[in-house]
Structure formats: C-alpha cells, structure tokens
Write a structure and sequence with these properties.
The protein is α+β, with helices and mostly antiparallel strands and about 190 residues long. The protein has four helices and nine strands. A hairpin with a 2-residue loop joins strand 4 and strand 5. The chain is elongated, with a radius of gyration of 23 Å.
Length: about 190
C-alpha cells in the first residue's frame, strides 16, 4: 500500500511516500542547479586568486546564482516532497502537513468537523466522452460547508476500499462508498 499508517498515544499518522521513479524527475533539475553553482564557485575562485576581475564578473555571478536558484529549487522540492495527515483524538485535531526538506506547511482543522470517510471515483474522459482513466479518492468528509481532506488517490477500487475501512476503523468513523453516484449539488 502506498501509505503507512501508524498509531501512537491516541495519534494516528498517515504518511504518503512518492514512488522512487517519481523522484527521478528531480534529477535533471538538481543537476542543472548544481552546474550553475559550480560555475558560480569557479567565478568566485578565479576572482579570489587574481585571474579574474570582480567588476567584470559580478553580472555573470549573479546570473549563475539566479539560475541555480530558479532551476535547483524545484528539483530540491521534488526530491524531498512529503505529505502526511496526523489525526489526534485526544486534542481533537487534524493536521495536514506538506513538507519540502526543512520547510513545512501545516493546516490545522478540528476532528469534530468530520463525520465519515468517503470513497469517490474521478473519471477522466477524452473529447468523444469515452473514459480514459479512473482514480478512486479516499477523503475525510464532514457536513455541508466542510472542505474534505484528500488522503490518497488509488488506481484500483479494492485498494481504496481497504484503505478507507482501515482509516475509518482507526478513527471510529464509517466508510461510505460513493463510486458511481453523481455529486450532490447542495453539498
């Protein structure tokens, strides 16, 4: 299963790991960023030992450092991306965390807002209206006006169902299957 579920002292943590082949997309960005950092280091080294002149090289140095930042930072984000949801039953909180290396973005919600775990289908269609792919989303849902929290999208319905039942049992919430139904317009 692509998610790990851990329980400790009334706290449930669901962590999603990206497959290793998805992290390979970060390598070209990291390589290009490192190239520009190496060139920047060479410019600084030449200016320090006397082979270059600072007043002629500062523009190239700034451009190389800017390219290293613009190209290397997305690679670093792709390489260190982590997404997890923590549900604390004692404090009655749900914390959604997106982490990129040392940078962490947290979203805090109240656990009492959520009433069930849902399984929904998301079908992509081509121009003729024929379905091309279907994914099954597992969400933590509440009543009207409560924005659901997406746990994970699965390719197979059985995986989504077993994951939803596992989360629902841990949180003592029912798991509802809405696959094949139309969305409610009033919700």
């Amino acid at each position: 299963m692509p998610a790990s579920l851990t329980q400790h002292n009334g706290r449930l943590r669901v962590e999603f790991s990206m497959p290793w082949y998805m992290r390979l997309t970060s390598l070209p960005f990291l390589a290009a960023g490192m190239f520009f950092l190496v060139v920047s280091g060479q410019i600084l080294w030449l200016d320090t030992v006397g082979y270059g002149r600072w007043r002629d090289d500062w523009v190239g140095l700034v451009i190389c450092l800017a390219f290293a930042l613009v190209v290397g930072l997305p690679g670093l984000v792709l390489a260190t991306l982590r997404y997890f949801v923590e549900m604390d039953r004692i404090r009655q909180q749900v914390i959604v965390i997106r982490q990129f290396g040392p940078v962490k973005f947290e979203s805090l919600r109240k656990l009492a807002e959520f009433r069930f775990v849902s399984i929904t289908d998301d079908t992509d269609t081509d121009d003729d209206g024929h379905p091309t792919s279907t994914s099954y989303d597992v969400n933590l849902c509440g009543g009207k006006g409560v924005k659901p929290i997406l746990f994970k999208s699965f390719r197979e319905r059985e995986q989504a169902t077993s994951f939803a039942h596992e989360i629902g049992a841990a949180l003592k919430l029912p798991a509802r299957d809405y696959v094949g139904t139309e969305p409610d317009a009033s919700a």
